[in-house]
Amino acid sequence: MNDESLMRPEERAALALQALYRKYGYLPFRMSRFEEYDFYARNKDFLVSDRIITFTDSRGRLLALKPDVTLSIIKSGSDRPGCKQKLCYSEKVFRAAGSMGEFKEITQAGLECIGDLDVYDCFEVTALAVRSLSLLGGDYVLNLSHLGLLNALFSPFDPDSALARGAARCIAGRNVHELEALCREAELPEETVREFCFFAGLHAPLAEAVEQLAPCCVSETALAALSELRNLSGLLDGAGLADRVYFDFSVVNNRKYYNGLVFQGFLDGVPESVLAGGQYDWLMARMGRRASGLGFAVYLDRLPSGTEAAGFDVDVLLLYSDPAAVPAAVSRLQAQGKSVSAQREIPDKLRYRELADLRGGAENA
Prior knowledge:
Elements: H1 9-23, E1 27-28, E2 34-36, H2 37-41, E3 54-56, E4 62-65, H3 70-76, E5 84-97, E6 102-115, H4 119-135, E7 140-146, H5 147-154, H6 162-172, H7 176-185, H8 190-201, E8 203-205, H9 206-213, H10 220-238, E9 245-248, E10 261-267, E11 275-279, H11 281-286, E12 292-299, E13 314-319, H12 326-335, E14 340-343, E15 352-357
Parallel strand pairs: 1-5, 7-9, 13-14, 13-15
Antiparallel strand pairs: 2-4, 3-4, 5-6, 6-12, 7-10, 8-9, 10-11, 11-12
Helix pairs in contact: 1-4, 4-10, 5-10, 6-7, 6-8, 7-8, 9-10
């Protein structure tokens, strides 16, 4: 029996995602299961949960089982002008999850692009987010926003004020009614109230949203964000990936760390996002880095039961009866850039793109 047939669906999905990212030059990142606790304590606001499993090692150091991968990637890298570091991972993280807050070992896959980023990098990471959702199978959508627009909207107000915090909460929850009441209670001008409510209710295909947003973008910050979104929309459309990408202002993420493009991916039938990420230059700066950072994670524990990654486990299934004929056939196929599984019979559940049958003395690939 093929080893992959014994894997859980999330493990098969992780392998398929890693293969996708490697095709775009993302190198695998491996890390220890734990870091010093102080490292995570300094960045608790960035973590999905601030509850961390800790223990004391033989030297008396307080260590923590890793709850996150991105922080370790940022910590391990260095800045080189003009260069980009592209890394992908499939790791187990340890987090409190569920209504009972019990700790779980979670398989998480994702990628990070760090360095002197440009519009192509934003497109590539966004496109890989779309392709990741497609690979998981079923109906999906990628919702994205840009925190440059949100920062421009909130620029006249103290970011720590009750109004700003309340408005951000309402926008993230798409609660236009409560947002309108909050703005009127603060006696904001009618034009400002309409603008806040427009942003909070906006959900449209990216290209349409860009045109709807244009009249509202007058500040330098807003115009720069709109330009990024317009360029991204054009590139996604040219790649045939625009149909499942929507602009949704409720995608806020953590404004203390994220500064630009942010996105969340959803699968049909799953109530919460299975993919999340964005541009985190402010987190990079907080950790002493001068470069930009953009990436996302796929939360494989949130996949519905029975999910199978789309695609194939191997390019060619090579069936044989004479072992002496196999090495040359395998080498020939691998020289064509194909992965090969040599078997005497067809394994259960193995998904292959082509069948090469040597048992009759002729290869039918």
